[in-house]
Each structure stands twice: as C-alpha cells, then as structure tokens.
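Q: What does the assembly look like in three dimensions?
Context provided by user:
Components: two
Sequences:
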Amino acid sequence: DVKVTQSSRYLVKRTGEKVFLECVQDMDHENMFWYRQDPGLGLRLIYFSYDVKMKEKGDIPEGYSVSREKKERFSLILESASTNQTSMYLCASSLPVLTDTQYFGPGTRLTVL
Amino acid sequence: AQSVTQPDIHITVSEGASLELRCNYSYGATPYLFWYVQSPGQGLQLLLKYFSGDTLVQGIKGFEAEFKRSQSSFNLRKPSVHWSDAAEYFCAVGSSTNDYKLSFGAGTTVTVRA
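A: Here is the predicted structure of the complete assembly.
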C-alpha cells in the first residue's frame, strides 16, 4: 500500500527558529512536492523536486528552502520562522507522469508564535 | 497560466440526497483534471481524474465527474450521499506545459445532515 509519512502532525515553534519538516515516501517516486494549505486559498505549491538534489520553485517559495539528498526523503526548511508561516503543510509524491496520482501525507499543522 | 475556481465554499446536503460540486478551470489547451477529497484530519485522496477519452469519468466512493470543454467545467456528482462523504473537496488542473505541477481550487466543504 502506498504511503507518504510526515515527521510530525502538530508542531509549535517560536518566531525566528529554524524549522525542519520531513517527508518520506515508500513508493520509489521520482517527484515530490511541498504544499501549503490555508482556508479559502486551497493548496499552493511551495517547492517541487523531480529527482535527488533537483528542485524547482513553486508559486510561493519565499521564506522556504528544500533538501532532497535521498530519493525517498524531501525536507522543507523554514530558515527563520515567522507568524505568517503558521499553516498546514502537505507533502505529496508521484511518478514522473502528469496523469499520475499525487499521493499525499497526512499533513503537519505548524503554529509559529 | 492555469487556474481553477470552485464557486461554492460550503454546501450542506441531506443524507441520501444528490450532490454536485462545481469546478471551472482556465487553460488554453486540453487540461488534465483531478478531484481530491480531504476527510477531517487526513491528507488528500484522489477521487477521479480526466485527461482524455470519455468525458464522463467514474471514480471511487460512487463519485463521477463530467468534463465539458465548452463550459470549461469539470463538475463532481454523487447520486446519493452518505454521512461519511462529509469532507473538503478540491478540484485541480495540470497541463503538459507545466511539468507535473497542479493548480488547486480553494475547496468546497460538504456538510451532510441526517
């Protein structure tokens, strides 16, 4: 069974802290994605990776960076967390085919105080 | 640029009644269209997708959607809803010119009353 896991379901951090969100998939997928979900805005793509060490900016990359050192793992980094980064963060993975399904993790609800 | 509009923020429907969720997309060429569902506390799960062929697509959980190019729409339907269908529903569009990226609508929350 397909599985995407995220390191934390809930996370509380303070302004200015460095935050790491981890995502692991067990499907040998080439593509991995980080989205941010906010009420009334749907999902917005932060970063996308199509291979190890390869990444592309999405629609809202400002304030975020990513790391993909292994195929199964994709990390989202908030270098200096701010209150406007309080949100739900969703990771997804897929094969490198547009028509393929994106498989989502359960999400991490991050609160920045 | 591709975009998706879901005009209804919230819909309330009685158990056993029919459900239709609207989705309009903006894209010049043939889009790749998806409906995802997010149950409370869960990630998103694919209900169905369309990229070519028959314009009426069947999905999981008894859902179907119809692609209408003339109306730029991809509406989701279910003939008889169950209480477990209470969730948030997202329409998404992708294109062959935009790599593997999807653009999601804002979502429609469905409440099912007994």
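Follow-up: Chain A touches chain B through 27 residues (CB under 8 Å).
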